[in-house]
Amino acid sequence: MKILVLSDVESKYYWDFFSKDKFEGIDIIVSCGDLNSEYLSFLVTLTNLPVIYVCGNHDYKYEEKPPEGCFCIEDEIFEYKGVRFLGLGGSMLYDGRGIQFTEKEMKSRVRKMRRKIRKAGGFDVLVTHAPAFGINDGTDLPHRGFEAFRELLDTYSPKLFVHGHVHLNYGLKYPREDMYNDTKVVNAYERYIIEI
Questions:
Q1: Distance (Å, rounded) from C-alpha 7 to C-alpha 140?
Q2: What tens digit of pLDDT does each residue of 126-158 get?
Q3: Where does the source fall among the domains of life (predicted)?
């Protein structure tokens, strides 16, 4: 399966210079959050591909105007062509604005997902906005990852973990791709294509 992942910055490559050829071979589009709802609606309309998303910490406007034609996978397992995507959006609580959670709150969300995970027989792709703690996250509170995500990776060993939030243009050396045990970890900043 060929997956286009997006996060944090609307790509001019797609939005300003759209061409259907750029999506050839893509099976699904996955947003890791902090993207304009119109951008996601634009992509689903013009590509005719499924678009799934989790919310970033700045996506509180989705409550009033969600991306049309897209599937929100917050606290859900979404299956497409035999691939199971588990979604958990938001970031670490740092200023109380937007979609933010404490570590305890995120662990509670994960605990509530356990039954769905068992029922689905696990999951193949973990889709989040924030990174996992200690895996390409920041040292400051706003960009620190969640231990709850690392525990999911340790317990279920999905093929792929995609996240956003830590921008590759911050000047820090966040890798685009990494490995954590048997899981490929990808920072979805702006746009990236992955095959699993």
A1: 20
A2: 999 999 999 999 889 999 999 999 999 999 999
A3: Bacteria
Where do the H-state alpha helices sit in the chain? 12-15, 37-47, 103-120, 147-156
Residue 84: both structure tokens together: 């199971």
Residue with tokens 């797609």: 14
Both structure tokens of 122 = 């696990």
Domains (ranges, CATH) in the chain? 2-195 (3.60.21.10)
Q: Are 43 and 67 in contact (CB under 8 A)?
A: no
> Residue 6 corresponds to which tokens in the numbers above?
């997006």
Spatial neighbors of 150 by CB under 8 A, at least 6 apart, are: 132, 133, 134, 135, 180
What does pTM read for this prediction? 0.96
Each residue's pLDDT tens digit, 170-183: 666 788 999 999 99
DSSP strand pairing (83-88 vs 76-80): antiparallel
Whether the Cβ atoms of residue 44 and residue 67 lie closer than 8 Å to each other: yes
Instruction: State the Cα–Cα distance between residues 101 and 93, nearest whole angstrom.
Output: 5
